[in-house]
Amino acid sequence: MSGGTEVYAAQAADGFSASGAAGAVLQVAAVVAGAPLVIGWMRQVRARLEGRAGAGWLQPWRDLRKLFAKQDVIPRGTTRVFTTAPLVLAATSLLIAAIVPVVTTASPLDEMGDLFAVVGLLLVGTVALTLAGLDTGTAFGGMGASREVTIAALVEPTILVAGLALSVPAGSSNLGAIVESAVADPGAVATPAAALAFIALIVVVLAETGRLPVDNPSTHLELTMVHEAMVLEYTGARLALVEWASAIRLTVLLALLANLFVPWGIADAGSGVAGLLVGLVAVAAKVCVLATLLAAGEVFLAKLRLFRVPELLAGSFLIGLLAVTASYFLPSPS
Amino acid sequence: MTISHLGMDAGCPAPAATLPATAAGPAGAADAAAGSVPVPAVRTAIPTAPGDLHGEVAALLAKGYRLALVAAHHDAPATAGGRGQIRLVYLFVSGLPDTRVELHVELDPDDPAVPSLADLSFPASRFEREMHDLYAVRPVGHPLARRLLRHRHWPHRWYPMRADAGPPPPFGPAEPFPFVTVEGPGVYEIPVGPVHAGLIEPGHFRFWVVGETILKMKARLWYLHRGAEKLFEGQPPAAKLPLAERISGDTAVGHALAYCLAVEEALGVEVGLTARRARALLLELERLHNHVSDIGLLCNDVGHGVLHAHAGRLRERLLRLNARITGHRLLRGGVQLGGARLASLPTADELASIAADAADIVTLALRNGMVRDRLTGTAVLTRQAALDLGTLGYVARASGLPYDARVAHPFLNLPGLPRVPTHPDGDVLGRFLIRADEIDASIEMLRVLLPTLAPGEYLAPLPPEPAGTADRACGVGIVEGWRGTITHRVELTSDGALSRVKIVDPSFFNWPALPVALANTIVPDFPLANKSFNQSYAGNDL
């Protein structure tokens, strides 16, 4: 079980590698370009499973192109909070995309790639949007913000706790180290702790990204919205940024989830161009499979009554807590 | 055999229509299982002094009559400089036996005032507010005599339905029309609409909320006033059938049929048995496509998109069937004055397949625990509230009230049909299940009707003007549309032109039930609750 610590120590000693830097650039570019496609793919899968033709998996890109070309309308009475929140959200999302092990575990920012830092960055983006929702002064903005914060308050601790369960075998809360430790010791993934952590993480990823059964991203009913209610007043390029950033968050979280539990293929500090490409293809395939499964699962789901959402999230927190407990008391067979 | 007149003639006699020789209709007794012409309704007009109105109404309500319609009339003065005449007609109905009692009240045209019936009947209090806004008839003693349908930009002191109203003046400055304020720690207000994120009709909803729980909700509708009733005036009845079909786009058959029944009664036309069957078929087809659509939309509102997609597919199938039968996807053109027209008919296999498809969608929805959880116990309308508010249609039946105009005021007798399902709980699930049951009941009815029908035009000849020498003839049409009981009352001048058409869509009765059902519901459940009521905005605001 000491492998993880050694890797971490090695990385700390040599924080920068050319491969890692190239990998980081590649993964940010891949996430930026691919995130709308992930959304489009999920919608298309869902449409086909429901017996509809669907708009095609390129539709989110078409929407973004349209929105960027549109006039930006800023509601009267709003402040800088409203105008800067999409930038904060986009910036934190890009930062997360750079430091989380997506294509490579050896990002030059990997030293910051701590579980706590990532959860913190996610929360910064969420808080920026909730403040913007409140800043509009409309009932919907406030309502959406209040609901979003209720959900975030339950989601963020669960991500931490479930991540903690995974970090115990690796001996580090650095995400790159956790992934590398899993590559080195595949048995560590097949523990009860990891299984419990996986379940907890799936639920909170759905909640964090506003998917069913917590929120319905395709609804037009303003009174039921959570995420959409906060951003109702955004138009044009700012709306495009918000949509894009949300897609990036979903994609990165799916990639992280995939790499934490099925880490194979990911590039590391020693990978060459081929290794990076393998890493890219591997993560694309993993995200695609996960997105397909999620979209297929959503077909069978309905949206929960709002007051049942905390029950669901509290349940996932409990599972996360059990995962931590299990990771201490039921160590992996190796 | 002539219709008996219990009351006195109040200047608007029910015409003495003569029945065909055999009461069972031309098909004869051998075909009795497939329906017969019912005994015509008995309609009585009782002239009433304003002072006696309250007592008469109390007596009628105590006998189990339901207030179906209140219509004001402003007859233009016969001579220049005359004062004209303001008349009110209160229509009370009860069935079976199909009985209709009209109270006719004449008022002083310079200062029309009538004692309010608000303490006896909630729907009456709303009709009174409507009459005040359109005719300046003052309800004396009304506890909440606020305006109902004049929105805040409506020209001040302009009463469009009066004969002397003239063309509409320009919109005036907004008059204050404040909402009641709800105060307390943590109470906040959510204004929604009248423009919504989805493609729905305009309505302003205001919620007072603590946390997510609704303390009070107020719906302000009436953004769609088109003066529809005024558009009928002075026109021959046949020319305005298309207008009746368009009162509420999804209820083409219901409104057209109620209009035709009313005009036919006024003209003394006896519609044949086959035409009645064809009309019943069209009415059930309309119920089918609307209920299927609602079931899909209820699933969509809980985020269960797959069943919405499949209900949409089934609805499309029904609309194409409608287009084959009448030439119009929403069944326009099927119901005609004096009869009905069918270009084609569904086959029994088609009906069976549609029924199976609909049953599949309903079963899948109810077997999904999350969908069921969202529907169960949401937005409960108690039986007592449903009764007090005078609700109609599936809203009333989902709260345990078995009222159905196809039974109480039949235009076709089918033995044992229609089956009228009820549900005791009054929640969204109840309104969902009622729709599912009514789909089955409609299919049962269509199965009985189908073998007795063939494509064709079944029209009784229409006299150009009412028989007799009276100044005017009038008629009432009562139809169970898919939303509930639709009532039309028409008056014809002696030369056969429409002088007044009063239309009551069930939504007029049902809208006030929505805020009542919403107390203690949470805000994110409002769209679901609203969809389960699915009231018409256009039918409510004429």
The geometry of chain B reads as globular
Q: What is the 3D shape of chain A?
A: globular
Mean pLDDT of chain A: 87
- Tell me the distance between the termini of chain A: 8 Å
Total number of distinct structural domains of chain A: 1
Q: What is Rg of chain B? A: 23 Å
- What is the helix fraction of residues of chain B, given as a range? 25-40%
| Largest interface pair | A-B, 30 and 31 residues
Write the layout of secondary structure elements.
The complex is a heterodimer of chains A (334) and B (542).
Chain A: H1 3-13, H2 18-49, H3 59-68, H4 80-99, H5 115-135, H6 139-170, H7 175-184, H8 192-208, H9 227-230, H10 236-261, H11 273-299, H12 309-329
Chain B: E1 42-48, H1 50-62, E2 66-75, E3 85-94, E4 99-107, E5 113-115, H2 122-135, E6 138-140, E7 187-192, E8 204-210, E9 213-220, H3 228-232, H4 241-245, H5 252-267, H6 273-301, H7 305-326, E10 335-336, E11 339-342, H8 348-367, H9 369-375, H10 383-389, H11 393-398, H12 405-408, H13 428-449, E12 456-459, E13 472-480, E14 485-493, E15 498-504, H14 506-510, H15 513-518, H16 526-533
Parallel strand pairs in B: 1-4, 5-6
Antiparallel strand pairs in B: 2-3, 3-4, 7-8, 8-9, 10-11, 11-12, 13-14, 14-15
Descriptive account of the structure:
- The complex is a heterodimer of chains A (334) and B (542).
- Chain A has 334 residues and is mostly helical.
- Chain A has one domain (2-329).
- Chain A is built from 12 helices and no strands.
- Chain A has helices at 3-13, 18-49, 59-68, 80-99, 115-135, 139-170, 175-184, 192-208, 227-230, 236-261, 273-299, 309-329.
- In chain A, helix 2 crosses helix 4 (80-99) and helix 2 packs parallel to helix 11 (273-299).
- The relative contact order of chain A is 0.18.
- With 542 residues, chain B is α+β, with helices and mostly antiparallel strands.
- In chain B, the strands form 5 sheets. In chain B, strands 1-4-3-2 form a 4-stranded mixed β-sheet, with helices on one face. Chain B has a 3-stranded antiparallel β-sheet with strand order 7-8-9. A 3-stranded antiparallel β-sheet of chain B has the order 10-11-12.
- Chain A binds chain B through residues 46, 49-52, 139-140, 142-143, 212-213, 216, 218-224, 232, 299-308, and chain B through 188-192, 196-198, 212, 299, 301-306, 309-310, 313, 368, 370-371, 373-374, 522-528.
